[in-house]
Amino acid sequence: RKEVEQDPGPFNVPEGATVAFNCTYSNSASQSFFWYRQDCRKEPKLLMSVYSSGNEDGRFTAQLNRASQYISLLIRDSKLSDSATYLCVVIRTGTASKLTFGTGTRLQVTL
Amino acid sequence: DTGVSQDPRHKITKRGQNVTFRCDPISEHNRLYWYRQTLGQGPEFLTYFQNEAQLEKSRLLSDRFSAERPKGSFSTLEIQRTEQGDSAMYLCASGGWSNEQYFGPGTRLTVT
């Protein structure tokens, strides 16, 4: 079983739709959580950190449920420019902050 | 540009040749990481430096791979006797005092 699991998608949604991605992690010692965005053949870019209280950045909302070991990302009012792969990332305690990535969920926003 | 830079961006080499990649992290960051990404997968950790000290290496990093960060600034990753399975995107990331890491554009290696 992979340490970080995501539905690979693709999620095809029309512009303006709301879409949610989920991610589960297997190691309860995970301490930090992130969503990265990766465009085709480009490097991952940090989208947002995820906090236990939940956090929002514009159209993006991230939630963490430590009891269920579950992380989510909600994108409201999808734009064409949101089309990308969204990578769920965790850091385990005591691992020198090395990132453990899921395989990513591909989003395609269409007209 | 104050972000992470990597050189070269693309490298095509024949099997058996040695290659070296360079990473220049964000200047005030003391942590530097190397990751490798293959098609359809998320990046996988290879190795980590804090300043000039290499503190962790993944089991993915065979003895053909070596990394250095001699003065705690830029880092190099060398692959000796390349194999076709080494074909991947090699990503460098740097981090400061928080857990956040910022990636360079990567070096895409193709071994023919």
Description:
In chain A, strands 2, 4, 5, 9, 10 and 11 form a six-stranded mixed beta sheet that branches. In chain A, strands 1-3-8-7-6 form a five-stranded antiparallel beta sheet, with no helix packed on it. Chain A is mainly β. The mean pLDDT of chain A is 94. In chain B, strands 2, 4, 5, 6, 9, 10 and 11 form a seven-stranded mixed beta sheet that branches. Chain B is globular and about 40 Å long. Chain B has no helices and eleven strands. The termini of chain B are far apart. With 112 residues, chain B is mainly β. At the A-B interface, β5, β9 and β10 of A face β4, β5, β9 and β10 of B.
Give the fraction of residues assigned to helices of chain A.
under 10%
Largest sheet of chain B: 7 strands, mixed
Average pLDDT over all residues of chain A: 94
* N-to-C order of helices and strands of chain B: EEEEEEEEEEE
Label the overall shape of chain A. globular
Strand element count of chain B: 11
The assigned structural class of chain A equals: mainly beta
- Note the overall shape of chain B: globular
Question: How many helices of chain B in DSSP terms?
Answer: 0
Order of helices and strands of chain A: EEEEEEEEEEE
* Distance from first to last alpha carbon of chain B: 33 Å
Q: Evaluate the radius of gyration of chain A.
A: 13 Å
Distance between the termini of chain A: 37 Å
User: For the residues shown, what is the average pLDDT of chain B?
Assistant: 95
User: Low-confidence runs of chain B (pLDDT<50, min 5 residues)?
Assistant: none
Helicity range of chain B: under 10%
State which percent range the strand residues of chain B make up: over 45%
Label the structural class of chain B.
Answer: mainly beta
Oligomeric state, counting identical vs distinct chains: heterodimer
Identify the biggest protein-protein contact and residues per side.
Answer: A-B, 24 and 25 residues
Low-confidence stretches of chain A: none
